[in-house]
């Protein structure tokens, strides 16, 4: 009902103290940018781990000298192991081709070998939950020389991802505390500058919510604006990161850039909203204690 | 409307502002409280508005007990008051219209009626040409009229005016008193404090109370 009035009053609060408001806007947007970047790293690393997990497979190398024609029997035995989902033979030519694809321009190094240095192997896709049992059963097969799996890489990535998780929570805590302190001071300063108006409203019988709303709106809108700016800067940073990574690390299974941009938007704006409301209420509570 | 019994107010520094005040005001009365500066007029008004709380006796305004701890109800009660403050308490940077509208935004006035009530009040105080003038640009007397318009626009049950003639010449002071008195009606009581007793000599239909040294003396009938 009084929407126009509250917006006007909020704008008056901004105008009455522009330097503090602009400084608070710059501060909160930079702090939220930090949050957005960590959140982007958090989401990206989670997606990378998931993508690698999705592609989890083991390569089984047979004992030396085993003819490729004998692989069929062995592959049947492998397929019968519980947890094995797909068994496929990668012959020597395909193994060579894959390495050429991975090395790219550096594939010239393979020319120094006489002929094809790679041996055929069996590629197995498996149920991740049963990885341990599948590996034991594969290694127990008499014609199997060794099994290569990517568990070590996955463990390393998972550890990295957990580290990012911890860092994200720490940054979230830091962002929360910092923005709450900034907003609390800003709202209290606004209230101090408007004590006369506030007292007049109280003498006219204005409800507490009516008196407080412009100050809460000031805090919330400032945070939302800061969040929007932070998101914009984070999008630029993500774009730049993808450009930088596309060259040297093309095989890194990063999540879709547009998905990452889109996911950051509600996260950063949501955090801004929550922090804006909380900071404004802390400011109001602090100002009430000062009375 | 107002019931006070044995009302006392002693400030924290020990100053006794009011002593043994007894008062009963009914709807539709016009009451002047006179007395020299420091006699307790403003202190009495502060008690009536809930800006201070009595240190003795009891006070009821518009059915609400005026005591500490009753702030929520006192806040609601204030929405039925029409206060005219000595220093006006207008919102700087806002227009006359915005100031008058302010008092209507939370007192239950229907949204569609707010503008109409505000314009009507400003018209009655003679400021129909200055609706959109910022209050800083108005003269002292015009600001006072805006303050009166804000008080009466909400159609209050009790109008409380603190020294409305304070800085005015005799002619303008009489006009303001006449204006305030004109808002008295069977539902609305008007209570005005003034130190200028000579200005109210001709007010035959009003009750006059005199405060001196925090004690009240009856000058002319008021229900007690």
Automatic annotation (TrEMBL), chain A:
Belongs to the ABC-4 integral membrane protein family. FtsX subfamily. This is Cell division protein FtsX. Residues 171-282 form the ABC3 transporter permease C-terminal domain. It is a multi-pass membrane protein. The chain crosses the membrane at residues 21-44, 166-187, 215-238, 258-285. It is found in: Cell membrane. Residues 57-147 form the FtsX extracellular domain. It comes from Anaerotalea alkaliphila. The lineage of its organism: Bacteria, Bacillati, Bacillota, Clostridia, Eubacteriales. PANTHER family: CELL DIVISION PROTEIN FTSX. It comes from the Bacteria. Gene3D superfamilies: 3.30.70.3040. GO terms for biological process: cell division. Keywords: Cell cycle, Cell division, Cell membrane, Membrane, Transmembrane, Transmembrane helix. Part of the ABC transporter FtsEX involved in asymmetric cellular division facilitating the initiation of sporulation. Its main location: membrane. Pfam families: FtsX (PF02687), FtsX_ECD (PF18075). GO terms for cellular component: plasma membrane.
UniProtKB/TrEMBL annotation, chain B:
Residues 2-224 form the ABC transporter domain. GO terms for molecular function: ATP binding; ATP hydrolysis activity; transmembrane transporter activity. InterPro entries: AAA+_ATPase, ABC_transporter-like_ATP-bd, ABC_transpr_LolD-like, P-loop_NTPase. Coiled coil: none annotated. Keywords: ATP-binding, Nucleotide-binding. One of its GO terms (cellular component) is plasma membrane. PANTHER family: CELL DIVISION ATP-BINDING PROTEIN FTSE, IMPORT ATP-BINDING PROTEIN. This is ATP-binding cassette domain-containing protein. It comes from Anaerotalea alkaliphila.
